[in-house]
Amino acid sequence: MKYRSKSRFTALLTAIAMIASNFTASSPVSRYVLNEINVSAADGAEGETTTAPQETTVTTVTGEADVPNDTEQSDSSSEAAVTEVSQDDSTNTADDTDGTSVPSDDTTVPDGTEDDAAEDDGDNADDTSVSDNVITINTSEQFVEYSKNYEADPAKYQNIDVSIAITSGNLDNLVGFVSIGTAQYPFAANIKVTSDSEFKLTLDQPLFAYIYDSANINTDVIISRSLPVSGDVSDSALFAEHVIHDTKKNTTAQWSVSLMNAEAAFSSVIGTLGENVNAKLTITNNADSVSVSGSGSAGLACGRMEKNSSLTVITSGSASYNVSSSSGNAGGMIGTMADGSAFTLNNEFALTGEVTAAGYAGGLVGYAENASVSFEGTAMVSGTVGGALATGGVFGYYKSSEAENSFDISRYAVSCTLNGENSGGLFGKLENSGNMTINKSNTEAADISVNRTSSDKQIFGGLIGTYLSESTSNSLTISGISVSADNSAGGAEYFGGLIGKADDDSYIRLENVSVSASGCKNVTSFGGIAGYADKAFIDAENVTVNTNGDFIGGGVIGNMNGGVLRLGGTTDLTGTKAAGGGQIIGTRGAALIYAQNGWQLNRGEAASFDDIGTWGEVLRLSSSLREDNIFNINETEHTVTVKRAGTTVGSLAEFAVLALNMQLNSGTSSDTRFFLKAHQQRAQAF
Prior knowledge:
It is built from six helices and 58 strands. The chain is mainly beta. The strands form seven sheets. The chain has a 26-stranded parallel sheet that branches. Strands 10-13-15-19-23-28-33-37-41-45-48-50-52 form a 13-stranded parallel sheet, with no helix packed on it. The radius of gyration is 38 Å and the shape is elongated.
């Protein structure tokens, strides 16, 4: 089109500019584009070019956009739901009449025609709608797009609520989904699922990468792990990789997760429960089988609980699932519990599968340090557990630094196979620096029963694999329990009916304890109470041992090179049969072995072996030969010192003191004290 005069051309340009101004000052839903217009003008106007303002960007648009006018458009009068407008700094903006700017538009309508602008087929790059701080999700594609938007701009999406409103189908096509939340901006909002929808997902990664414990989900999350479209299988949690404590709200998270049949394994429902987090988690296992596997800490409910975190779990459904960790700790419910963490099981728990770990493995918890575990129901473990460092029917490793701590095994129904190092029915490895008690308040509750099928020469105990203590001032009291341990199909280095191996400087008191052990010959050393107690103080009152056949070692202690064995009440070895070693102790070094006044010994079948395998006999005290005549005993530090020998012998007590100093004193002093450090320049009995 050619114009005859400059004045007419100028008027046309003015009109175009006014129109452009109206477009850019109108509602941000405008999707019009004024393309570059080349005007060929006569009378010197030819070649002049006018460029319209840059296009506007609408990040979220649903429905068909109305044709904008020059007045501000309200949400109630527009069919388009516009929620978030972001500015792309890479494009220019056009100022409207009040001095504000309109962002550029990534979504353009070809040719800028009104008819094209009014058409919206719903295939925009971001289909999700946000209204009143709520994003509405209607399709799998929208959920994937939302996750990507969160990753791209987490600060904007952190506190925006999500409404799941799917009228048909599920969120089952989530290829490209990105776990929600970042370390700096964990998900902190709410997810609300409408009454006619399900929150059912199949993901190849966690639903949340980071989520605050204040976030709320109003329904059950039905979830399964899929194989990735490309790349390796995700070594990650199912529901949330990290749960972070929201210090501003201090609330308790309450989430419910249902497990479905899955193509791939996951490391836990929650990966890491952060410091000071409080959470209540309901897990329903609707799958035929579940595989929980990871390279770090792994457990069905949680991989790792950080310091002072608290987790309450309610479980239901199938108990058939396996847990494994290729490089860390694994537990049937929790992989690792840090200092001060607390785990509560609010109902019956059952594990019938297998737990294996390159570190510590436990039927309930792999590794726990100064942590508390409590029950409303009973923990039933009947599967197979195996850890390279330690293996426990309940705890792979447990450390207690509390002044007073107790475990009631009435809550534990353990009947499982232990095929790892340092294996024990309750604890694989127990480290104690306080006063701990293990008892059974409900006499009707099931006894702990464990067996071993591995031929590896490792440490195996019916209750504890290995017991560690830094000082005899610490104490472990085991009272009123019965344990069954079967090694018939396996082998062991040290096999103890109660404890496989007791560390140096340990004080262990036994009261009314009964042990039934089988397969006691295929070992280096068996002991009805402890397979190995080199320098421990074992204080045993009313102990019953049944070996169900031959044993090699001792009916009470297999190997005791030093330390003290003090016997009281009745030691009933009627059900034992020594085939090597001794009736009471198999191998004795410079250990003090004595019985209190009134002690009774019931020897085993065909008692053809001595009470002490290598040398000596039990020193029996009586009314005429009292403890205080011979020993100085510190019941607080749990030490026993044989009194100083004199140069003359005028009584039975003086003779006993002289004899014990000659037998047990390997140093130069005239008295023998047990559990003294070597630098104190006194002879030791170990």
